[in-house]
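From the pipeline queue, job 12 of 40. The input is one protein chain; the requested action is below.

Action: predict structure.
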Amino acid sequence: MTILQRKPPYQEPASQNIMAVILQSLPQEAALTKIEYEGPKIALYSKNPSYLMQNSQLVSNMVNTIKKRIVVRTDESIRKPQGESAEIISKSIPVEAGAAGTFFDPVLGEAVVFAKKPWMLAQTGEEFDNIDLAEKTGWRVKVRRAPRSMEFVQYAYRILGETVAERTRFYREVGDKIFRDRLAESAEASLMTLGGFAEVGRSCMLLSTPESKVLLDCGINETAKDTLLAYPRFDVAAVAMDEIDAVVVTHAHMDHAGFLPTLFKYGYAGPVYCTEPTVMLMAILQRDYVKRTSGALYSDADVEQTLVHAIPLPHGIVTDISPDVKLVLSNSGHILGSASAHLHIGNGGHNLVYTGDLKFGRTLSLDNASWNFPRVETMIIESTFGGKEDILCPREEAEASLARAITSAVHTGGRVLLPVPAVGISQELLLVLDAMAKSGRIPQSRIMVEKIVSEATAVYETYVEFLSRELRPVMGESEASPFGARFETVEFAQIKQGEPAVVLAPSSMLAGGASALYFKQLAGDPASKVILTSYQAVDTPGRLLQDGARQVTVDGESVNVRCHVERIDGFASHSDYNQLMAYVSRLRPKLRRVLVNHGERPKAQNLASSINKIFKIQTQHPLVQEAIKLL
């Protein structure tokens, strides 16, 4: 088919040399049929994939030689039809494993089995052998833990299955652009701040080199009343959508990824690099935005384009994303799949680390943010809690305060509202509440979880490898979920006065969403409580409540506040001032420059000043619409 042909302009010597090395390195037993670009990877199609799977050192040696990512794919000619393959796989799986479904991706030649007890399938043996199944079906078989709800899995694979030709063409075109010869040898790099500097929301910046234009995050500020403050300032970037080579997304929150479908709506057709959990969580949050927002910026079709163009990357793997930029994603500790982006620009010319949202402190759900970068000249670091006064209370104290607050409210017949983001603190609180309920630290009562939170939690239950080192074995060895699986999932429910309940619902700042509805139900009840656990942006109802207001406007309605309002900050998914300073102190070798973003202007200024004074590092706290020369 012509759709699979590579464009003539990119048939260049660099590409041919890579292919030649691969062909010379593989014996005839590999039964290689073709070598194709698969975005930033080189795919080897084989009629005997089990040979390469059993002799993985051959592939490792090639990777070391050509310094490119290589993946083994089964040739289409040996793949049995999906229905027949699903039946073969099903017969190979023990009933006790609790298979919830097998999903196929024809572009990658992969069959993914979702099972309630995946540990029963993770080892090779007589009952289940991935190499054996590859030979029997012609598909490479992967295993994942089945979440409580398969809705997002079914949605994602439906979209992937409907766009096979588009994705095949897309991967090859991306590969052509990445692996072409460079057009210029000059080493230059600059950064344009399009959003998220001296503010929280609409994080976005453009990295430009003579070869590339790479967008780092692409968010919206849902609480901004002025359009010029709500979306990234592409009007000052002087860049057309088709000039952008790649978008790197650090995590799924709307202030970092909420504008992304708009790019596809207006002509972007390139790759989106992020972790696999981020792909799924983005789709959930972006679809929710379309559903709940009158006059949304984009449609479900634009969200689907984001999914189709996403190229998921694991943490810690060096990946070419343009002829002169390599990317490594590292755990940032903020939410599931969140990452700091380490960009290697040119031939060792400059190393830039963009932390994204950062948690340099252990939580129940996620490991501490990674900090051991081999080399960094410039770091862009967040400052949400960058003020010297921003010291979070110890975790033990936070949990004790939460238990006391819930207990006192329930004993008086009150209701407790926890306004939370759909992803992040929500899942951390589910772990805490589940443990408290089991141990008796809080009394028995209804614990209600808004549907969007449960949908996001299903992603946490699926991508176990991204969870904390303590939680991974728990999820990997037990069918039960510690994320409060027994809690009640609701959607805009009514909770009557005098009926004790704990409710987790977005948005975290009461600026709309289900939490606004629940707040209006209980605001006039002196026995009830609102507990604020996350950052509250300026001028939001949550911030006004935090500052002591007894009358706030929610969803256009003035609400008198008679309920109790408490703030417990120890569950925050951002680093506080001490953690941010500790993070910078750990970096070796010493940074040359720090750019501070993602914080209200006084917070960014304070953090920049402290880093400069204490570590003697050049610091800046730019505003939006500034151009910064890196190299």
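Job complete. Residues 276-292 form the longest helix (17 residues).
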